[in-house]
Amino acid sequence: MSPSKSEIESILSQGKRICIIGTGGFGREVLCCLMDVIKHYGLKIEDIACFMVSDEDYKDTSVMGLPIYPRSSFDPAFFAVVVAVGNPQIRKRAVENFPANTQYVTVIHPTAILSDWVELGEGSIVTAGTILTCAIKIGKHAQLNLHTTIGHDCIIGDYFTTAPAANISGNCTIGECVYFGTNAAVRQGINICSNVTIGMGAIVVKPITTPGVYVGVPAHPLEKNKTKV
Description:
Blueprint lengths: L4 H9 L3 E5 L3 H14 L6 H4 E5 L8 E2 L2 E5 L8 E5 L4 H9 L6 E2 L2 E2 L4 E2 L3 E3 L4 E2 L4 E2 L3 E3 L4 E2 L4 E2 L4 E2 L4 E2 L4 E2 L4 E2 L4 E2 L4 E2 L4 E2 L3 E3 L4 E2 L7 E4 L4 E2 L8
Parallel strand pairs: 1-2, 1-5, 2-4, 5-6, 7-10, 8-11, 9-12, 10-13, 11-14, 12-15, 13-16, 14-17, 15-18, 16-19, 17-20, 18-21, 19-22, 20-23, 22-24
Antiparallel strand pairs: 3-4, 24-25
Keywords: Transferase
InterPro entries: AcTrfase_PglD-like (IPR020019), PglD_N (IPR041561), Trans_hexapeptide_repeat (IPR050179), Trimer_LpxA-like_sf (IPR011004)
GO molecular function: transferase activity
């Protein structure tokens, strides 16, 4: 669940910082989310958090007032991790490249609403205005962006990702590495296989059994543009 004061104190007592992986737009939004989490605890964000990027992307040494470290400096004894990479496949590869004993942090914004009947996997991020009702199970390293809603009795795999205002109706079963674009939605009782991208504003009304990109209303497979003769 969200890193409570006791969890943050536990991380600090171990000599660790919360390390946000990625300094892109979403990484910086996660920092803002984390700042909202801790603001009532009398803690300073610069005392508990930092950023980390790949060695190839390591150019700047700080962003938004926090230090940036290269990936080669990672040590699970000193860092607890939240992976703030929007692409689910890339995020999965990033997690797989961390040591098995890496400690992951789940960040839940104070304005998000989660019932007591929600199971949320480690390393997940739930941003402002998100609502999760009851009997919902979501896997590891999910990212639920602003004002996402998920209805009752949904089972969702690892690395699930939503852009702002995505809406998941009740009784849906969704595989891993599925991405919902901004304002995308799915009808109740729909199954969606793994490795699917639902485009911005698309409406899923039928089960999806083949990986790929789906767009439109109703959602259908994206056809690659063909060169006109």
